[in-house]
Amino acid sequence: MLLTPARGFTLLYIAQFLFLGVQLPFFPGWLYETGFSEKAIGLVTGGSLILRLLLGPVVAYWAEGQRDQRIILGIISALMFVSASLLLLGQPGWSIALLTITMMWSFGCLVPLTDTAVMREDRAGTLNYGRTRAFGSGAFVFANLAGGVLIARTGDAASVVWMAGAALLSLVVIIGLPKGAKRAEGEAASRLAPPKLSDAIRLFRSKSFLLMLTAAGLTQGAHAVYYAFSKLHWSSLGYGSDLIGVLWTIGVVAEIMILFFGRPLLKRFGPVLFIGAGALAAFIRWPLIGLSPPLPVVVLLQTLHAFTFATVYLGTVEFISRAVPRNLENTGMTLVSTIGIGALTGVATIISGLFFTAANPFPAYAMMGAMGGVAVLATLGLWRHWDGGIIRSERGNEDDATSDPDGDPDGDITKEPVPVPDRP
């Protein structure tokens, strides 16, 4: 029996974040146990994110023209499951690296495609985006706690078994999604013309889109050291896997509060302020974490995850919903995930892995704080340039205006009218 959109996407988020809740804090420990150095872990983790930069937009552009998005979601989820399962067989180092990159790339493509589908369902009134996503964060908390206890008792290899199971659950849920979930706007959505490649490229001619990409990408990318090396850092301080799971859980509980209750604030203050709040929090959070403060201070700093992740995430989704034409939403969301977040996180992970040490993590975390500082400046630029509506190329000079093949001085992203319902 097919699932309703609300139940189906809730279960899909749960499955995805059961995977992520173990992969982020604990999988690097398994890689380390199998012989990967800190530098190698940084290269593998960063490599998967850079691969998202190269292939993620292609996958998203292909998805725009699919009548049934279960197909692309199923293919990506199956690839994630197969690569995770093969890690269980025991492989040479180069094979583990390739499988890890494939698995993490697949997950990185699956999430923005899911986000876009859920955003469309939200507009159609079949679910609440923030609350649906909050169930995923709840699953992340469960994975942190249960996974931490399991791994503390059985060893880091349990993380791979857990991830393979979560990937299989994602695939099963996708098969059960109703066909109509591919487009929440129903009949109206089916009339949206597939985007032209030139339309997608012209997203990059919008100052507002580029500033949002920079601000959100740098803020989310500033989690690089935390995602890749926090287990090594905190283990060196004597924290066990169970305590590390609790620390991650504190951050995610704070995240859930924003996702579940933050929508009225988002509607009131808008996406730019939400992104800016996260950027400022990143500027504060990461250098202080790098100083290895006492545990009570670490607990307090973990609550800033409500801003460094959740407000930026909601602000980004809201910006895409308000500013990007309907037939470019998959592309816009994936560009944020791959270029704005994936590439920046990948580069930051690789660079920080070159000089990160568990004994002295401050230089790496200070770099993350600097990324937050630059993101604050980008947010101020976004505040100035974006007018709150559908983005335009904003070329701002007469030569470009007269050279526009449509004779449109404003430089609309789409060359042909696209049926866009009133935005909420």
From TrEMBL:
Q: Where is this region: Disordered?
A: 393-424
Q: Which UniProt keywords apply?
A: Cell inner membrane, Cell membrane, Membrane, Transmembrane, Transmembrane helix, Transport
Transmembrane residue ranges? 12-31, 43-63, 70-88, 94-113, 134-152, 158-177, 209-229, 241-262, 269-289, 295-314, 335-356, 362-383
GO cellular-component term (any):
plasma membrane
Composition skew (Acidic residues), residue ranges:
399-411
UniProt cross-references to Gene3D superfamilies, sorted A to Z: MFS general substrate transporter like domains (1.20.1250.20)
Q: What domain of life does the native source organism fall in?
A: Bacteria
| Pfam families in alphabetical order | MFS_1_like
Record keyword Metal-binding present: no
Q: Where in the cell is it found?
A: Cell inner membrane
Query: Which protein is depicted?
Result: MFS transporter
Q: Which organism is it from?
A: Aquisalinus luteolus
